[in-house]
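Team,

Forwarding the record for the chain on the shared tracking sheet. I've put the sequence and predicted structure together so nobody has to dig through attachments.
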Amino acid sequence: MNVFIFSHIADCDGITPIILSKLVFNNVDYKLLDNPCDEEFLKTLTEYDFSKYDYIFMTDICVSEETLLKLNKEFLNKFKVFDHHISRSHLNKYDYINIVDIENGKKQSGTSLYYDYLCKTFENEMLNKKSLKELVNLVRLSDTSSWEKENVEPNSVLTDYLAIFGIDEYINYFYNFIINNEQFFIEEKLKFLMEAEFKRKQNYVDEKDKGLIKAYIKPYKVGIVFAENYRSFLGNTLAKRHMDLDFIIIINISRSLSYRSIKDVDVSKFASIYGGNGHFNAAGGPLPDNLKENIIRQIFEGVDIIES
């Protein structure tokens, strides 16, 4: 069975569905998107022959209703969406879209929703392995910051793996790990790297904290940082350090905007003003068009940009 997946490049919740698919299906192709807006998404449709796939899945991202309708029509009902961004829950009126924030009292992730669908739809012994169930749950806990609410000791191993090894090695490592192990555990040879990575994250946050810019974007008082790494860890840690702020804005100049809050502030509503979406305490959005070109023009007066 041939499967294609569109997902998010930024974190484990976007990437782990690729592992799930490889464990279940014969052939898996995928496209990880930096900024899953309609324009970027539709651009990828010219890159593949989608007629050869039995299923086309979208996990941890959800584009506009208009684009989703076009996709479902073009893919001849082979198309399914699994997402947990509550700001898009109105799209559940379509039977091929499954957007769930909380189920059975627990916050859900794109990975957990996709895993549940696979278990209900396909018979495969890999889906019953304890190691895979634990991997899926760790992704869910990490992506939704649900450790404390569910009384589970925090475990950042997945995000640390991703930061250390990169996307391809993360996929290959856990694919082979699930095949070869019944129980989930951290290999001894990797524990030192995990400890080193945690220290690196702490140092990174300390450095970014020094450059934090506080500003008013009415009616909110926010903290703004420019950063490319450790989005969730950075945003949540800075939000705890600066309780005078309503939320943190992280600007990744090469990718996107991120919003993090630990207060009773719905950052998804704020993000929607600027073309984004997300959850109550965590959201994201696209950068303005031509931002890089405008920065170059501001730094170098009279510059003539030839190509971008």
